[in-house]
């Protein structure tokens, strides 16, 4: 089973940027869809963004024009570039793909 490892979470001020990466233990060109979910305290997990093997990307409305998801097949990784961060983006972010999930990484947006 594929293993996913996330990196890049942390604390950032509103309006700032963070980059999350998710590295897979297998060749990601064999994984049709990969992406990110997030879960804020007291809320259900929601899809943030996903990208297919062909490069098609989709985003939840609340992050469109602020977040960019990309695939780096040479590194077997996907990247989520998060810009203009807002306090409501605070959550644990989980990478998914190949039928499995990463362990999650905390993103906190606070003054």
Short description:
This protein is mainly beta. It is 0% helix and 51% strand. Strand 4 and strand 5 (46-52) form a beta hairpin.
- Kindly report the oligomeric state of this protein: single chain
Low-confidence stretches: none
Helix proportion of residues, in percent? Answer: under 10%
* Rounded radius of gyration (Å): 13 Å
Reported for the largest beta sheet, the result is: 7 strands, mixed
Number of helices: 0
Structural class assignment: mainly beta
Mean of the pLDDT scores? Answer: 95
User: Total number of β-strand segments?
Assistant: 11
> What is the first-to-last residue Cα distance?
40 Å
Write down the secondary-structure element order. Answer: EEEEEEEEEEE
Describe the protein's topology.
Blueprint: E1 4-7, E2 10-12, E3 18-24, E4 33-39, E5 46-52, E6 57-59, E7 67-72, E8 77-82, E9 91-97, E10 100-101, E11 105-109
Parallel strand pairs: 2-11
Antiparallel strand pairs: 1-3, 3-8, 4-5, 4-9, 5-6, 7-8, 9-10, 9-11
What key phrases describe this protein's structure?
111 residues, mainly beta, 4-stranded antiparallel β-sheet, 11 strands, 51% strand, globular
Could you describe the 3D structure shown?
By secondary structure, this protein is mainly β. The chain has no helices and 11 strands. The strands form 2 sheets. Strands 2, 4, 5, 6, 9, 10 and 11 form a 7-stranded mixed beta sheet that branches. A 4-stranded antiparallel beta sheet has the order 1-3-8-7, with no helix packed on it. The protein starts with a strand and ends with a strand. The mean pLDDT is 95.
């Amino acid at each position: 089973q594929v293993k996913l490892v996330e990196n890049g979470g942390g604390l950032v001020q509103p309006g700032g940027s963070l980059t999350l990466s998710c590295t897979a233990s297998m060749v990601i060109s064999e994984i049709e869809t990969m992406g990110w979910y997030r879960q804020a305290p007291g809320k259900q997990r929601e899809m943030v963004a996903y990208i297919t093997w062909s490069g098609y990307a989709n985003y939840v409305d609340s992050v469109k024009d602020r977040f960019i998801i990309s695939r780096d097949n040479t590194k077997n990784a996907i990247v989520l570039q998060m810009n203009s961060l807002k306090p409501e983006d605070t959550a644990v972010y989980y990478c998914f793909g190949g039928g499995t999930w990463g362990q999650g990484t905390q993103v906190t947006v606070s003054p």
